[in-house]
Amino acid sequence: MEVAYVYTKRRSEFGKHVEFSNGETQILESIPPTDAYDDDYQIRTTTATGTDNTPQLSESEVNTERVVMKNTSMQHKEGGWPKDVDFTEQSDVKRFRKKVEKDEEYQYAMKQLVPLVQRCMNQNNTVNIYEEYFDGNEIEHCSEPPFAKGLAVFRDPSPVTRTATSVNWHPEGSNNGKVAVSYSVLDFQDERLNNPDMLASSYIWDVSNSNKPIVEIVPPSPLSCLRFNPKSSDTLVGGSCNGMITYYDLRKPNASSGKCLPTESSVIEKSHHDPVSDVFWISSKTGHHCVSVSTDGQMLWWDTRKLDEPTDSLVLTSDSKGNGVTLGGSCLEYSIEAGPTKFLVGTEQGIVLSLNTRNKKTNNGITVFDTGAGKHQGSIPSIQRNPTHNKYFMTVGDWTTRIWTEDLKTPIITTRHHGSYLTGGCWSPTRAGVFYVTRDDGVLDVWDISHNQNEVAYSHKVSDAALSSISVQGNTQEGGKLVAVGDVNGTVSLLEVCDSLAKPRPNEKSTINALLERETKKEKNLEVRQREIKLKGKMNGARRDNGEGEVDDVGFDEELDSLEKEFMSMTSAEL
């Protein structure tokens, strides 16, 4: 049942009807401001406060103390003898031993210790832990694709960026993993030379510790080259940017603290006038003689025991009569296996010089190689003989690498032009046909001419900066796996190459020798043909002047065919 109730209200109960209309503005009341009531009131200060119920937290960091590793050495000397016994005298030692051996306590101690020692020795001899189970089994690495991996990075401690100008391994090879690196700035009028924070030191690093150098070489001027003495590995010779030659002995007392000062230094007035490009130890009875070369055109011989003045000097010219041009030496090569009096010099002009001090009567013993199409189009930063075939040598310059022989004045092998400028290179000490080339774009190229003479066998990106120096550890008997590469930022990268690039292949020496001999004979045949063409041109010119006919070319063609057949038969026999 729905219940509803209706409320009603009359219109008059709502009040008067409202009517709105527009009218003029009127001021109903105006109260002007006054200060009469200021004493009855006090202005309240407005304050703003904030509250937060979020819990407050604190953050802190804790790090353990860094452990600094340092290599130290200990020297064991014979000791424990009584004061009245001189252990250097055999008679005193024998007398004292007889006296001790008769002592009952000594006999009792020996009876107790001998059985224990014998038991330990028998246990050690039961199993030979050093036995080589697969000794003598040669592993074939020819099919392995070439590769390299980075092992360590040695950074220049100087706060100012310097270039790693040279890298030289310890002469003991794989038995001693030390590398000497020289640092300097060779750019003319470089702003960094005026920086007081730039160091002049060079360093010797250990491959097992890349955090800190083991020896700091402190020269009077930054070193542009540094080299170990192969006969006495504790001595080094360095060439400075101001042209001085300095000699260092790591056995001196000042070297025990980690710093090595020069033992001898040359007089700057009698030194090179330009930065020393390269320095080499040469064969001598005393092992103290070295030779240096510089871009000032001088080649100086030194005795490190007395560096007041050079023992001999030679100006690098293309003609001994004075008509030639003085050539600035940019690199040097010396190998005792090639001959104790033979030197190779690469120049800034791209020309290769061969020097034999025994033949000084003929152009001062200097032989100038090709100055035409065969020379480099720029400075030669590296020159090195092949470690296994000393008659052949390699030069690196402009955008190519060229292989030469002492029998010819023209290169026998020239690589294709690289996409970037070449800054250095060296042969592999263990593989006769492998050499390394550094580039301006930070890439290391590895060539294997026994496999392919036209293409790079392997390329490895080492750094974003330009590479400046390279050296491979080892000799012809061992090593060849560790490669040290320096760049213009002072960083030396240590790489380890694979076995296919380090271990020699079967019959590789004979194969490379045959390849180089073949290229030499081919170049000789081309020279013979070129001389024949020139001779024919002269004869035809003389006949035309006399009104006679030209010389027939049948004889030349027959001789060329015979030379070609001889070359092809020799090549097929080798293959």
What does this structure look like?
This protein has 575 residues and is α+β, with helices and mostly antiparallel strands. 17% of the residues lie in helices and 27% in strands. The protein is built from five helices and 29 strands. The protein has a five-stranded mixed beta sheet, with no helix packed on it. A four-stranded antiparallel beta sheet has the order 1-29-28-27. The longest helix is centred in the C-terminal third of the chain and has 39 residues, at 508-546.
Describe, in short, the structure shown.
With 575 residues, this protein is an alpha+beta fold.
End-to-end gap: 125 Å
Strand-residue proportion: 25-35%
User: How is the biggest beta sheet arranged?
Assistant: 5 strands, mixed
H/I helix tally: 5
Q: Work out the helicity level.
A: 10-25%
Output the radius of gyration. Answer: 42 Å
**What overall geometry do the principal axes of the alpha carbons give?**
extended
Number of strands: 29
Mean pLDDT: 85
Classification by helices and strands:
alpha+beta
Low-confidence stretches: none
Strand line-up of the largest beta sheet: 2-3-4-5-9
